[in-house]
Specification:
The protein is α/β, with parallel strands linked by helices and 501 residues long. The protein contains 15 helices and 19 strands. Strand 13, helix 10 and strand 14 form a beta-alpha-beta unit.
Amino acid sequence: MTVIRQDDLIQSVADALQYISYYHPKDFIDAMEAAHQQEENPAAKDAIAQILINSRMCATGHRPICQDTGIVTVFVHVGMNVQWDTDMSLDDMINEGVRRAYQLPDNILRASVLADPDGKRQNTRDNTPAVIHHKLVPGNTVDIHVAAKGGGSEAKAKFAMLNPSDSVADWVLEQLPKMGAGWCPPGMLGIGIGGTAEKAMELAKESLLDPIDIQELQSRGAETRAEELRIELYDKVNKSGVGAQGLGGLTTVLDIKVKDYPTHAANKPVAIIPNCAATRHVHFGLDGSGPAILPVPRLEDWPDITREIGDNVKRVNLDTVTPAEVKQWQPGDTLLLNGKLLTGRDAAHKRMIDMLSRGETLPVDMQGRFIYYVGPVDPVGDEVVGPAGPTTATRMDKFTRTMLEQTGLLGMVGKAERGTAAIEAIRDNRAVYLMAVGGAAYLVAQAIKKSRVVGFEDLGMEAIYEFEVEDMPVTVAVDSLGESVHQTGPAKWKEIIAERV
């Protein structure tokens, strides 16, 4: 009988979470490289290049791929002949591994898990507890999949209880525009069909642990309805023209995964969960011989890619930029930001709006300035700031008009598209919205030369910082007239793709 020691499981979970924080799976790297080679939209191609360059930097520097280091999900299959040498429960051992991983001084990972989710929303400080799925299986080993799921992509999950005769493919394609680009495409869509409501969601999440193999499936042909659906949706989703980061292009998904389960005759539960460009998961087993040993990838696994900067690049001095200058920027323009850039996301915006409603003075003057929607990872060593990629901008939409009209804010930087209300506020105030690439957090951090807290220090990573940046790359996503590249780009590339069929 196999004996699994407490410390072996704890150390294995901790090692796995550190490992996936800076190593992409090789199948993901290969698929992204193929997408980069075939992409024809310069903006989308540059976004993919940034993701691949960031991935290589993180692999060599052992720093997080994304500033959102995720909520931990664990699928654990325990052999029924296993005996445990522990005084802790299985969940407690896994959570202790999470705690050690996220607090490791050499590579601190951002704690994003909040207790009392509809109340105080207080940070647990160590990213526990994980979401854990258990299964007892025949055998004498413990089989574990560890994943870290970012909040931006998780927020785009969808569920429906379809009628038995309804088309799953039609429903998925109907949801795609509603998902926007906040899930950081290109990535994968996991689809769960059947069981009950909670089972469908679990199937969708679990499907994302499978390797990218759609090309092999296309070559051999489908053998099941689930495989037919994968091929059909892979083709149709990529013909949508959404493209990398929602900028329009040839690749929106790298693969479609489908798992199904028997269901009640009256039901057809269906779930979609997207996986973003920060795809983080690893599989290992324990057989009683000690902690898991995870293979160290070779540097040759990453393509040697450089960014190709086009003729429309403009250097911007944030300390002297004027409204007249902002009005000259066109959707799709690439800007290199220099100077002082404020930060703030959900909690900071909520507090600022409350202060403004009470007629109170904000801790920092925002007249004519730009704010970056980011919650950075803590720095280590001589870093100014840890990985600092953008968070999903639509969460700040409800604050946008008040911020623009009452603070004199000139522009915002975030991830993915803006909603209708925010675009109207940007247009009415002749402001601008700039997009940074989600999934390139360590690369972005290299452009940040100084950092200091200027407001709401108690909010931790959600405090207001002032960054000094040099050549931070962004794309004009909504111009001062309210034209959005996230609307025009995908529409244009959908037409281009349709003309080729």
